[in-house]
Amino acid sequence: MHMRKHSLTRTLTCTWSILILVVGLPLWSKGSGYQSVPLGSATIKQLQSALDAGTITSEKLVQMYLTRISTYDEQLKSVIVVATNALDQARALDSERKISGKRSLLHGIPMVFKDTVDTIDAPTAGGCLGLAGTYPLDDATLVRKLKDAGVIVLAKTNLDEFNRGAEGLSSLGGQVINPYDSTRNPGGSSAGTGVAVNCWFATAGIGTETGASIRSPASNNSLVALAPTQGLISRAGLIAISFTQDRGGPHARSVEDAAIVASHMIGLDSEDLFTHASIGQLPKVPYYESLNIDALKGARLGVFRDLFRKGSEFEEINNLIEAQIQWIGSQGAVIMDGLTTGMDLVKFFPSARASNYEFREAFRGYLASRGPNTPFASLEELYTSGQFLPKLATRYAADLAAGPTPEFDPAYLARLKNRETVRQMIIDLMDKYQVDALIHPFKSLSAPPIGTSDRGPRDNPVSAITGLPAIVVPAGVNSEGLPISIELLGRPFSEPTLFSLAYAYEQSTRHRTPPPKFPALMGESILVPNNP
Known about the structure:
Layout: H1 5-9, H2 12-28, E1 34-38, H3 44-53, H4 58-76, E2 79-82, H5 86-100, E3 110-114, H6 141-148, E4 152-157, E5 169-170, E6 174-175, H7 191-198, E7 204-209, H8 215-220, E8 224-227, E9 247-252, H9 255-263, E10 300-304, H10 315-330, E11 334-339, H11 345-348, H12 355-369, H13 379-385, H14 393-402, H15 410-432, E12 437-441, H16 462-466, E13 470-477, E14 483-489, H17 495-509, E15 525-529
Parallel strand pairs: 3-4, 3-7, 10-11, 10-12
Antiparallel strand pairs: 1-15, 2-4, 5-6, 7-9, 8-9, 8-13, 12-14, 13-14
């Protein structure tokens, strides 16, 4: 059972305001040992401190987020459905905290999940009308791990239907809106997660990508996002385009929060044998424990010139990123400029994608995992029903005409080989110049007009086609007030290094820019102990 987000939360707006007046005043009487932190800037550690001190409960935190969803999401369309048991999850975790303490830093923290991530607390439909209101048999592995850490599954977020796009449009959820400019693309395909986390509808969220679909909406929403090393985080329970390329990763409003979430998602999973690559590669301590505000001092960073696009239309963002690189150098980093593979990497990208060959089979495998009660057993049956986004009809027809994944097709095998070649070239480049990571613009253009794809000259799938880890961090805004990001690309399983470098950069710049059109509501603050 489930209900749409607005019917569930509409009555909470007035109720929560009254609750603040009744509950909030006594808390202020606790004196100068506390500070009031806005909900939109409260970190996971600050929330845990407040939860431990009893100045807020997870139940109240969920109510605050639901009130924001009810107030603002009619405009933004970032959330498809709210979990009807969200408050029950919160109450149970509040009770557990009192009895036995918290499980982790994620205990009682509400998160949102892209609607291609299986959850048993809310339906999973991939944004498709044909699967509306249907449930998987089990949580995705990454959801199970986060729930084991104490996460609350708050809601499922809108997206490009079944990940097949880059504009945030689905037949079930409609068009996700960019909170900075309603005429611009919000970033796809994990558009809803990006907008929901940006506008404080949850503490953090989960997106997925085949090419750039974790990082693109994060960039357009001034968020931090990690695209992990292929094999670090299980894909079991994710609706995927590509069984060799797709990944899941966190969206957060700070590097530390992204590191906390990622720390609880990693490791071997028998349902995704790609994760065997993580054996012996996992960090000795959680990512968030190794963050170092001085990490840029003495770090060796390579400026990856292959990803600076050439042309006058790219000059503004290229120049902004050049200024950020100079800033990083001023913080003590050694900047190795001019690094290149020696080829036109951007032009080569289309030749290194195999995803279009794999969707039909990946989709069939996913539907089989849903059990006999799923309305469709194959792409053919979905196509015949017509219960999907009309603009996908041509693409589905092409998928069906192509047939199953052609494992002996020379063109398909060549693309897989191209991916391995580029991966090794980039690793060799980092090794040759002994750099800790490569830095470059994530996109060289800001968000395009709504209704158009956020790909083409904005596309940067290098992390996805190579399986190398990348983290995007807010780098300011352009002349139109739209967010831009810098990306750090690393060697396999170098997430501890990437998180630490990103943290040091973030703390020295503080470039995250919240959307001004969706401000705090009355009573949206958390009372946090000054020295927890």
